[in-house]
Structure to design on (253 residues):
């Protein structure tokens, strides 16, 4: 039986976007009725109302299209990048704004957004025969008292077993993929630019992961939230089985 909390989180982003569109529709209808009550309506008011209606219809159509793509009902292979732009720069700000108004925790809304974009990734990404994969990791996965400070080259890890970096290094070797470790957005962007991958598997916290997938919207990105049993940016963890299963899935495809 699925966890109710997980199901609730999964549905949060679609509910927020749909609610935002319903509110915008209500605003349009209110404006329409107020203008209809006037004896005289200027050409500017009419043009503005028609423009509002056109934008509103496009937003509804775009959202229905995106939900169809994320649900696997429609094919996203040839419109994947355009669909992501619409999701990241139109519907995400709409959902986050409504979450703020409703006092919904931002991290919950971001988690739901990342789950939605991951579904879009799984149904939309199209890989070549030998895709270039990049596993992008945060430096806070490393054990805080490790004598070797791993900055960019994961091969410096001696696989002592005190953190998950050793397992991730082995995954990179087993699947022959590039693995980058970043301690901030600037370095992460440089790693992505240098690797120029076909697909990015990114691990980070809510804020960094959300900002990262939006900044790298031209790349197919699968987002995996790290676990923070000791608080943010300190001895964080990640489920390596999720990464291993995803790599097997991508390579089979």
């Amino acid at each position: 039986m699925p966890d109710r909390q997980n199901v609730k989180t999964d549905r949060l982003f679609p509910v927020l976007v749909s609610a935002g569109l319903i509110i915008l529709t209500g605003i349009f209808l209110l404006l329409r009725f107020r203008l209809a009550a006037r004896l005289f309506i200027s050409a500017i008011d009419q043009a503005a109302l028609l423009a509002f209606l056109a934008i509103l219809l496009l937003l509804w159509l775009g959202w229905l299209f995106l939900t169809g793509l994320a649900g696997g009902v429609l094919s996203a292979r040839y419109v994947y990048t355009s669909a992501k732009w619409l999701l990241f720069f139109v519907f995400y700000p709409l959902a986050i704004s409504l979450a703020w108004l409703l006092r919904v925790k931002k991290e919950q809304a971001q988690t739901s957004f990342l789950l939605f974009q991951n579904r879009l990734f799984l149904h939309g990404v199209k890989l070549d025969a030998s895709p270039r994969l990049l596993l992008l990791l945060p430096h806070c996965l490393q054990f805080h008292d490790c004598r070797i400070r791993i900055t960019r080259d994961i091969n410096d890890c001696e696989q002592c077993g005190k953190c998950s970096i050793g397992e991730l290094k082995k995954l990179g070797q087993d699947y022959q993929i590039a693995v980058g470790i970043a301690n901030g957005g600037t370095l992460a962007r440089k790693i992505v630019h240098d690797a120029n991958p076909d697909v990015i598997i990114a691990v980070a916290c809510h804020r960094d992961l959300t900002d990262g997938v939006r900044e790298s919207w031209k790349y197919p990105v699968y987002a995996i939230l790290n676990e923070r049993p000791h608080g943010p940016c300190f001895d964080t963890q990640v489920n390596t089985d999720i990464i291993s299963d995803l790599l097997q899935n991508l390579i089979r495809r």
Remarks:
- Confidence is low (pLDDT under 50) at residues 1-5.
- The chain is about 60% helix and 10% strand.
